[in-house]
Design a protein that fits this description.
This protein is of the alpha+beta class and 675 residues long. Helix 1 crosses helix 9, helix 6 packs across helix 8 and helix 10 packs across helix 11. The longest helix is centred in the last third of the chain and has 19 residues. It is elongated, with a radius of gyration of 32 Å. It starts with 8 loop residues before the first strand and ends with a helix.
Length: 675
């Protein structure tokens, strides 16, 4: 594929609800433009873009598919994004590096939850938008109803640029409202035809509306329209381009992707109306953003980047402004679905891939060292659904750990960490399906199987009162014996820390044995007393004790300290502490009652509510044990419209009714291990 000037490039993300045919539409455009020699079909497993085994088996897009095509002396790079919300990170990444987004809707369903969510994301990203009413060949398909739902959801800027000719199975062409011409579909080509008589009036009315919207896009055009009462064809085209770029106009197009109907007319419109990347000055220093990383066990790490200025060639050395290290770019590739095409040069607006970069990750800026400025990163959503991961086979612990870490390089919304309290490996993602897919990918790419469980909660133990206890460890079994005796007092430390106070006077315990008492207490605190969780917030005072000239040892005093601490702890009003999370929930007003009621059931406390951008933002603090499946439950309660984030806030006492079964379960587990 030859190098195109920046003005002849178009970078477009296909976004929308799951199942509306985004991938099928991309496949139709690739086939129509000659990139593929047959129309790729997702349901038959030979899609160029949905090629991962998980995508073929589940019949949904999981990863962003990238493929360029050439049309009308333009290069269009399509970024096909998943519609299923668990993979929203791919949508966010795509919208960060394109100038335009195509909002695909089902002709039978119109605007759905995913339509609203991706529209909001596209607005936040500041990209130009168009809408495609797809599946017009299906039964009950209605272009008019779909457009009405778009208009009701997104405002007066929604306006058809194309009108379908024929309905449902008879959908066979479109009327181009701007050009006032009709086209019938003929395979990959369009055949010009007279405008059907039943559409003439509607076309005239729409063209008048388009003229008004175009005039609003620019002051000069507004004046021309007011003076002349009309716009020239050139001014109309310029006004529509400006209106789309500014987000004032949302053009609507008509397609039936699996029938390859409408792809050619859509490609024409994308070339005519949608913005090219902003051109940098000729000779500007190289600068690019890595927005996607793919981990492959054979090829290695492949970094996909969008170039913002300057040119780059194979064997170039660039500077990573994020890590502060230099990288050598060997071969350069254009991603093409599951394949790549090597190129000898790439410039502003191009999306390329390079392999085996040692010090580069997603969101890193590659540039020249003399002009080392970082670009704004992709703002990925934080994972909210975690599971504990265990190897299915013994001895696979290291293999599973390295495989999971490789997957985190590939997906910034997937994280892995080891909980120091529970000693579990925790993998977290956007939702249950997201995590399941990553575990499937772990098996396929790295050959290791895993089992998943709900994570244990990192409880803590502490005391509310004060208690004194002493213990004498004395053992004689021939030869040298064991003797250690200490008396300690423990109380709650208000700072939540541990403090050891030595109040021994004279020589009740020799000074060299006193650190052993401290160590014995700390070891017992690490193991826990109530339910096997670490003890925090303790001040321990060593009051008294005794020793034996021959039989005393550090170990004997550690044992004495452990037992004394356990006895004192049980008498000092011990309690269990649970982690409490700071939670922020964003939902439409209509769901407020159900969300607040659910928060109450989860022992949550509402800290505040704010209305913003047509949503209610609920701020609450909620015990972590109540939040494990909240990502799934919130989606169910709000039909996918709600979202939330959470972060650790503090530890608080577990109510007695909830603490009792936790303590009993720990005691039962302890008995089972000793039997």
């Amino acid at each position: 594929m030859r190098r195109y000037p920046t003005a002849q490039l178009r970078n477009l993300a296909l976004v929308g609800h799951s199942g509306v045919g985004k991938t099928s539409l991309a496949e139709a455009m690739l086939f129509t433009s000659g990139v593929t020699d047959r129309l790729g079909r997702v349901d038959e497993g030979h899609s160029l873009l949905d090629h991962e085994p998980e995508e073929i088996r589940r019949q949904i897009s999981i990863a962003m598919g990238i493929a360029p095509l050439e049309w009308s002396e333009r290069k269009l790079t399509l970024l096909d994004t998943p519609g299923f919300f668990d993979f929203v990170g791919e949508v966010v990444a795509a919208l960060r590096v394109v100038e335009s987004a195509l909002l695909v809707v089902d002709a039978s369903s119109g605007v759905q939850v995913g339509t609203e969510l991706t529209y909001r994301q596209a607005v936040q990203a500041g990209v130009a938008m168009g809408a495609v009413v797809n599946k017009l060949d299906r039964e009950h398909a209605s272009f008019q109803k779909a457009v009405e739902s778009l208009y009701a959801a997104f405002g007066r800027g929604v306006v058809p640029f194309h009108l379908p000719i024929g309905k449902e199975a008879n959908f066979r062409g479109v009327v181009d409202v701007v050009q006032e011409k009709a086209y019938l579909f003929d395979g990959r080509e369009l055949t010009e035809s007279p405008i059907p008589a039943d559409l003439v009036t509607e076309v005239a009315a729409l063209r008048e509306r388009l003229t008004e919207l175009a005039a609003e896009a620019d002051d000069d055009l507004t004046i021309a329209f007011l003076e002349e009462g009309a716009l020239s064809q050139a001014d109309l085209l310029r006004g529509l381009q400006l209106g789309i770029k500014k987000g004032q106009i949302l053009p609507v197009f008509a397609t039936a992707a699996t029938k390859n109907a409408g792809a050619a007319s859509l490609l024409n419109a994308l070339c005519d109306y949608f913005p090219a990347p902003t051109a940098a000055e000729e000779g500007a220093p190289f600068q690019s953003l890595v927005f996607k990383t793919m981990a492959d066990p054979f090829v290695g790490r492949m970094s996909v980047m969008r170039i913002y200025q300057g040119t780059v060639r194979p064997d170039s050395t660039v500077f990573n402004a994020t890590s502060g290290k230099s990288e050598r770019l060997a071969a350069l590739f254009i991603p093409k679905g599951k394949g790549q095409e090597s190129v000898t040069e790439a410039g502003p607006g191009d999306i390329i891939a390079v392999t085996k970069l040692a010090a580069t990750s997603t969101n890193d800026t590659l540039c020249t060292e003399a002009h080392a400025e970082t670009l704004a990163p992709v703002e990925f959503p934080a994972p909210v659904f975690g599971v504990a991961v265990f190897p299915k086979s013994k001895g696979d612990e290291e293999k599973i750990g390295s495989g999971l870490l490789r997957l985190t390089e590939e997906d910034q919304t997937f994280t892995v960490h080891r909980d120091p309290v529970t000693a579990e490996t925790i993998a977290a993602g956007i939702g249950e399906t997201h995590v399941d897919v990553m575990i499937e990918r772990l098996k396929r790419k790295f050959g290791v199987e895993a089992t998943l469980q709900a994570p244990k909660i990192s409880y803590r133990e502490t005391i509310l009162g004060k208690a004194t206890a002493e213990y004498k460890h004395k053992k004689q079994s021939g030869g040298r014996g064991q003797y250690g005796h200490c008396k300690i007092e423990i109380e709650h430390h208000p700072a939540g820390e541990y403090e050891f106070v030595d109040r021994i006077f004279a020589g009740a315990i020799p000074i060299n044995y006193r650190p052993a008492v401290d160590k014995g207490v700390q070891e017992t605190m690490a193991d826990g007393v109530l339910a096997g969780y670490p003890v925090h917030g303790i001040r321990c005072t060593l009051l008294d004790g005794s020793y034996h000239d021959v039989d005393s040892s550090e170990m004997a005093f550690k044992i004495a300290a452990r037992n004394a601490f356990r006895q004192a702890f049980q008498s000092a009003k011990p309690i269990l502490l649970e982690p409490v999370m700071q939670v922020e929930i964003r939902v439409p007003e209509a769901y407020m009652g159900e969300i607040l009621g659910d928060m109450n059931k989860r022992r949550g406390r509402i800290m505040g509510m704010i209305a913003t951008d047509g949503e209610q933002v609920i701020q609450a603090i909620v015990p972590q044990p109540e939040m494990h499946r909240y990502a799934i439950d919130l989606r169910s309660m709000t039909q996918g419209r709600g979202r939330f984030s959470m972060a650790f806030d503090h530890y608080d006492e577990v109510p007695a009714a909830h603490a009792k079964p936790i303590i009993e379960a720990a005691a039962h587990h302890g008995r089972a291990e000793t039997e």
